[in-house]
Amino acid sequence: MRIPVIAGNWKMFNTVGESLALVRDLKAQVADAQGVQIVVAPVFTAIHAVAAELKGSNIAVSSQDVYWEETGAFTGEVGPAMLKDAGCAYAIIGHSERRQFFGETDDTVNKKVKAALKAGLIPIMCVGELLEEREAGKTMQVVEKQVKGGITGISSDDIAKIIIAYEPVWAIGTGKTATPAQAQEVHKAIRALIAALAGTQVAVGLRILYGGSVKADNVDVLMREEDIDGALVGGASLKADSFARIVKFSK
Ligand code: 13P
Fold first, then answer.
1. What is the domain partition of the chain in residue ranges?
2. From the alpha carbon of 171, which atom of ligand 1 is closest?
3. Class of domain 5-247
4. Is 48 noted as a catalytic residue in this protein?
5. Which residues of 62-94 are buried (b: 16+ CB within 10 A; e: fewer)?
6. For the CA of 126, the nearest atom of ligand 1
7. How far is the CA of 92 from the centre of ligand 1 (A)?
8. Model pLDDT, residue 80
């Protein structure tokens, strides 16, 4: 009932030329994939070219961030309508690398999620705990605060359009994947929280992706968990072969 989403976050990799080569290869490899929404998130400079290359295909384009104002004197930022215009359908918001290195807070995430929704972009809102928070038994406390903070003031109808990505920070780029049971526990709790905040119907339809060292050889077991509705993939999305295998996960 929930269509799975497999999204590739390319982070700060790939020139325009490299991006185009990657999506040409990918497009051919996943042309027959059905029942899954495929998304790639290039750097800002490659979005337009990648979106043009993917026009008419079964792969959509996301940004890796978005600013909350439409236009203005905000040097270095890109607004939601501009991303839509360049060919994006999705926007990754609040990735842990932005929280860690660029001062992203629950408040800025909230503003960005609202702005993305207003422009018709689907937010992929990222949450996740640090290793020390997990070890201190604070995982759910941290994730709840991030989810609540990110969707403050958003109507249930709009919450229904959001995708949440649970990415435990200790699992990102480390080769250390959360076990399916560890991920499932948090995903289930996020769904219960959304049920409490926006109603059961919204919660039942909400896509919750797992991210953190998802690879071709662990995607299947993760996707077998009831509340895991897809993956946000970093490193393994940079090669067409491995990303295509992830897209074609089997439960
Ligand atoms: P890796 O798959 O490289 O661990 O990255 C995960 C991630 O941060 C996706 O947004």
1. 5-247
2. 4
3. alpha beta
4. no
5. bbbbbbbeeeeeeeeebbbbbbbebbbbbbbbb
6. 10
7. 12
8. 98
